[in-house]
Amino acid sequence: MHFAEAKSLTFLSLSDTKLTEVVMSALKDLENLVELYLDLILITDASKHCLLRHLHELTHLSLSKARFNNASLSTIRKSTFANRKVKYLDVGYTLVNDKGIRELRDIPSLQPVCLNGNIKEVCENE
Length: 126
Prior knowledge:
This protein has 4 helices and 5 strands, in the order E-H-E-H-E-H-E-H-E. The protein has 126 residues and is α/β, with parallel strands linked by helices. It has one domain: Leucine-rich repeat, LRR (right-handed beta-alpha superhelix), CATH 3.80.10.10. The protein has a 5-stranded parallel sheet with strand order 1-2-3-4-5, with no helix packed on it. Helix 4 links the parallel strand 4 and strand 5 (113-114). Helix 2 runs parallel beside helix 3 (70-81). Residues 122-126 have low confidence and may be disordered.
C-alpha cells in the first residue's frame, strides 16, 4: 500500500480490516492525519506505538473493539499522547478500565474518553 501520494489525508478509517504490519508501517507517512479509526483490528501494541508516535496532528483516535488493554494504553500514552493535540479517544469495548484511564489525567487537551461496554473497576486512592 502506498501512502506517499496521500500525505494531505486528514481522515482515515481502517476499522474492521485485516491490517498487516507492512500497512501499519506505511501509515506513519500520513503526517497530516487528524482522525484515525482503527476499530475492530488485531494488531500488536508495538505496531500501534510505532504508528501513533509519528502522527503529530492526530486529535481523534478510535480503538473501539480492538485488542487493547491498560498495558496497551500505557505503552502508547508515553509517546503518542505526550504533548499532543489528542482531544477524543474511544477505547470502548476493550479491556481498558478506570485504572488505565487514570494514566491520561495529565493530558489537558483530552476531553471525552469513550468507555462504552467496558467493565468498571473501582480505583483505590483517588
